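Q: My labmate handed me this sequence with no annotations at all. I'd like to see what the chain might look like in three dimensions before we decide whether it's worth expressing. Could you predict it?
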Amino acid sequence: MEKIKQNAIVKKIGFNRLVLLCVMVLLYLLFALITPMVKANASFVSYARMVSALKYAYFLGFLSLGVTFVIATGGIDFSIGPVMFCAALISGYLLTMKGWPLILCLVVCILVGTLFGILNGVLVAYAGLPSFITSMASMMLAKGIGSVFTKTQSVSWPQLTDANGWYRNLVGIKMGNGEFPTGLVLLVLGAVICAIILNKTMAGRYILSIGSNREAVRLSGVNTKRWETLAYIICGTLAGMAAIFYVAKNTTVLPGLGDAFNNEAIAGCVMGGTSMTGGVASIGGTLIGVLIIALLQEGILAMGFQIHYQYIITGLIVLVVVWADLRSRRRRN
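A: Here is what I predict for the chain of 333 residues:
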């Protein structure tokens, strides 16, 4: 095992990411073999299936990328799903009911997420509130604000054939009988930018250092509050961007929802190697973790099972990964 880890190619890719890639490939092959056996005339091996799985991964991916920064500081954010819905509801209401320009409404999506990120960051870093309690309160606020703003009514975004429907090309462009996954290109681009911020900038180094040893970083003269707040702002901004990809995939947005996506986004981070205790994070791993969750969902639906089975499998995987992470840390200590 040590020889494999020391291999130049494995070192460059990262052993944990390589294992995740292998898991994803094996999962795909498993679904390809089992689906026809479980459900007659069903096939998992098709381009349409892959596009369907990817569309789920786009908005979930941006949520996971954002919360990776927060978890890297040793915190948590359970408000990202409802914030995404709140942003989609507010901007969608302004678009369909008030006649605001589409571009401005897409900007509103991002601004709503950013404002929630600022709120969470200030309360956690400057007011000293626990991130768990703060994000739970923000989750309730996001649900309530979205519902009140739209008068508890659902919001339907324009279809592709409508005048303002071009934004749906953000997830895929029709090409003949198929579809080019533009959303995947944008998600990977977003992941590259996040990886640069986290691994190549002063902000990223401080965010990771806060998760490793907050007190030591503070005593060295670093303004930990500023950088911790930035982590939450990045998280909120990406939740706003996730709202754009959510409405580009789904037509209707219902008020009061979004909780389930918190768990899946955090699960994607944990699967990808981001430590729940902070200090260790992998943007590439998060991206692969999200793709695994999307593949799980598509595979379970292809076999004709209810989506609840995905939650069971994802929960078990998260437990195993967290246990392995804690065991690894104890060994190093």
